Amino acid sequence: MSMGESQPETLSQRELRNESGRVLREVSEGHSFVLTNRGVPVGRIVPLDAPAPTLPIARPAKRVGGWGALKPQPSEGDRPMARILDELREDRM
Known about the structure:
Elements: E1 9-12, H1 13-18, H2 20-28, E2 33-37, E3 40-45, H3 81-92
Parallel strand pairs: 1-2
Antiparallel strand pairs: 2-3
């Protein structure tokens, strides 16, 4: 493996188990691996200081709704709370 390789080397679960010391040394030197299980890629082993992959932004986020969209409700005026409760109770009868 060379330092400048563009594609990480694939590493089977068995190789990781049997050669963990070598793998850890190479990761500490900056190498990356794609971990496979029965030939199917299942994960990556990368150095801690490796830059995180960036996600492409397909469209910018737009804030819609939320608390800012709520408008104040008109006040009930100076009606006493007892009267409001009586009106609500009448609806249930």
